[in-house]
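ok here's TetR family transcriptional regulator, seq below lol
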Amino acid sequence: MRNRVALHQAALTLAEKHGLEFTIDDVAGTAGVSRRTFFNHFATKLDAILNCGLNDSHVCYQEAFLAGDFAREGRNVVEELLMMDQELDKQRCLGNGIGWSTRIHDLVLREEKLRQHLWKTIQAERASRIRLVRARYPELDEDTAWLAVRLAESIILFSLENPGPNQDTTHTLLPRPERQRFFYETCTALLQPRAQ
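and the structure came out like this:
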């Protein structure tokens, strides 16, 4: 875990200083690890900047999801996905410090290639989660699994949103889990069939 954080921080710092004009060897050297160690954690320098890509904790949480470890009485598939994401976020943020996500956000806005890579990563992750949901809940069809995954993504994005001065700030006054609950209840209410 320590090497992964060091590599991510090194890639992030190099990208802030040099854009995308640096090599994997630069990242490994800055982090004080070998090139081989880099490839144990990331496939590309773009993955290292974004701190994305499969890792052991990611696989463990997917296995836990399939085993029903996030299931509780009354909890549905969207809530299970949110619980898995919450655990993954704890792992992803570990050791990265305050302001880490803002630094990534600024780079994504600045670098088109990084933005495209992030979009491809999101699409691949979405497809993977749909397969995961279908494996855990074989009775769900493709469209329902897609909807569950997209709803979980929307809740997470909504809970991370920073409103501007003229936007409604009701949801930001609540801690993150309560903001997720607020948005989830709103979405499910909208998705309910309406009485004629």
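fwiw The chain has two domains: 1-51, 53-191. kinda neat tbh
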